[in-house]
Design goal:
By secondary structure, the protein is mainly α. It has a domain of 230 residues: Alpha Horseshoe (Serine Threonine Protein Phosphatase 5, Tetratricopeptide repeat). The protein has 20 helices and 8 strands. The strands form 4 sheets. Strands 1-5 form a two-stranded antiparallel ribbon. Helix 3 runs antiparallel to helix 6.
């Protein structure tokens, strides 16, 4: 998947132009000279079309889904800012204690840290339309791979079975994107493969209804997905569905008002029993040969310097941190952008990483205190994403100019599953145990402390506040923080303050409306079926 399927995705995306305007018609089909019957004439054709659905996570541009004709031209003009991961990561991290971006004139950046964004923000709109582009691609694939189409095109036996598995994977990808929209926007428009093509405007779905839909989809496709750890690297299997269900259930109270911690524990146990183990070295999780980490990685967005050349994705995460030399990041140099607040740095016992190796802070020439939000030397930066192998060698497909990276992004990995299990137990879920939760947490900490038990905690130390801090230490820069802080009621409240929260240096509480992003103004003006989220 990392090489040949990505290459296939690139070839398809550069020949198929897709525009996903929720504004005009949400579910448009790809338009070009190649008919659906030609594309889907063979099982290989189906696999190549599925590669487009996967590739759209890592690729950019209008022909690759860099937005719709209605997205701000500032987003479309910047290939990096039309990459799904960069858009999603910015909304999950720049809004929290984990990250700030130096360049306030970059479209949409100003206001994210300060919690003063509006429905015209191009990063918010960009992510919204990007997710709908990917849903559109999946809807078309699902429509073309239903049982009647498979029969009509004469597929039988193994070919028919494989196409059904591909369809289940496309449904997983669509469910993931609807989870993103539900988490960020609460009540987005909704359309599936059964909606009439290019007619009518989509209706809005409530957050609770969308939760039920995602849950039912993931349960329905579980029997059809490949067994855990048996699919091609980078493709979804049963474990990916269990991981998304576990995350969904952990946040169920936010989404629906009802806790589902018991269900979260059950899905974590399925993953653990499938044979996943912690990769032994934490600092190998986000480097150029992390595709080898099949012990811990459950589902990744794959990047390859030959085929995914854009300024988003893990290229952004390796180049972006301020002041980090290219000799460390494995790139041509830094962009002087990403920095941490001092409050986040203080989650670690020391900034050096000599104690807890997860602390990967670059401090030379940097001030710990973020006295000025838009000064590149205020705030330590991070070298967590490095375009080098575990031996320190150049990336497998190293770009000679030092621009693009080979670092795959872990959307789901076992470290998160251990943390979900522990938190769900603490929140009253049944089917697990406090003793097992403590064991999983101490396994994470033993790895972090280079195999030593010096960082292990006792049962009395395993509290919800500890879990939130541990999630920060373990999962930072992996696009979890906003969702975590909301679940713990610390995102907009005064119970936890960080530099520039609410627009002041010391931090302050913000309007609770910022727990949800606004529906883009452009969509509201074009679709009378939509209502804006409260407060915007």
């Amino acid at each position: 998947m990392q090489q040949h399927l990505l290459k296939t995705a690139v070839l398809l995306i550069t020949t198929v132009s897709v525009f996903t305007g929720c504004i005009k018609k949400l579910d448009l089909v790809p338009v070009n000279d190649i008919t659906a019957d030609a594309v889907y004439a063979t099982a290989l054709g189906y696999k190549q079309a599925l590669a487009k659905a996967y590739g759209s996570f890592a690729l950019t541009g209008n022909s690759g889904g860099g937005g719709s004709p209605d997205v701000s031209p500032q987003i479309i003009a910047d290939e990096g800012n039309s990459d799904f991961l960069r858009l999603y990561w910015n909304l999950q991290e720049l809004t929290t204690d984990e990250a700030a971006w130096t360049w306030q004139n970059d479209a949409g950046v100003r206001g994210l840290k300060e919690m003063s964004w509006a429905s015209s923000n191009p990063i918010i709109a960009g992510l919204y339309y990007r997710s709908f582009f990917q849903i559109t691609v999946c809807n078309d694939f699902i429509r073309q791979s239903n049982d009647s189409k498979i029969s009509e095109r004469g597929f039988k036996g193994n070919d028919a079975a494989e196409i059904k598995k591909y369809r289940a994977e496309a449904r997983f990808l669509r469910a993931y994107q609807y989870w993103v929209l539900m988490d960020l926007f609460a009540s987005p428009p909704f359309v599936d493969e059964n909606a009439p093509i290019a007619t009518g405007l989509p209706k809005q779905i409530s957050r609770a209804e969308l939760f039920t839909y995602i849950e039912s989809e993931l349960k329905a496709i579980e029997p059809e997905l490949a067994a855990a750890k048996t699919n091609e690297y980078g493709r979804a299997d049963k474990a990916a569905a269990w991981a998304l269900l576990a995350r969904l259930y952990l946040n169920a109270k936010v989404y629906t008002g009802t806790e589902k911690n018991t269900e979260a524990i059950a899905n974590c146990q399925k993953i653990i029993q499938a044979g996943y183990t912690l990769h032994p070295t934490y600092r190998n999780l986000t480097i150029a040969d992390n595709h080898l980490n099949t012990d811990e990685n459950i589902f990744t967005i794959n990047y390859d310097a030959r085929y995914t050349q854009n300024w988003g994705g893990t290229t952004y995460l390796a180049h972006g941190p301020a002041a980090v030399p290219g000799s460390i990041s494995g790139t041509s140099g830094n962009w002087g952008g990403l920095r941490h607040t001092q409050q986040f740095v203080d989650l670690f016992p020391d900034a050096s990483g000599n104690t807890d190796t997860r602390a990967q802070f670059y401090t030379t020439g940097q001030n710990k205190t973020m006295a000025d939000l838009y000064v590149g030397t205020d705030g330590y930066s991070s070298f967590k994403y490095r375009n080098k192998t575990r031996t320190g060698a150049p990336a497998p497909n190293a770009d000679p100019n030092g621009n693009w990276t080979d670092i795959d992004f872990p959307l789901f990995r076992l470290g998160e599953i251990y943390l979900i299990y522990a938190e769900a137990v603490l929140r009253g879920g049944t089917g697990g145990s406090s003793a097992q939760a403590l064991t999983y947490i101490n396994q994470l900490r033993t790895r972090a402390y280079n195999g030593s038990n010096a960082g292990n905690i006792t049962a009395s130390g395993l509290t919800l506040d500890f879990i939130l801090n541990e999630r920060g230490r373990e999962l930072y820069y992996e696009a979890h923080r906003r969702t975590d802080l909301i679940r713990f009621d610390k995102f907009t409240t005064a119970s936890y303050l960080w530099a520039w929260k609410g627009g002041v240096a010391a931090g302050r509480a913000a309007d609770p409306k910022y727990n949800i992003f606004p529906i883009p103004a452009t969509d509201l003006s074009s679709n009378p079926n939509l209502k804006q989220n409260t407060g915007y």
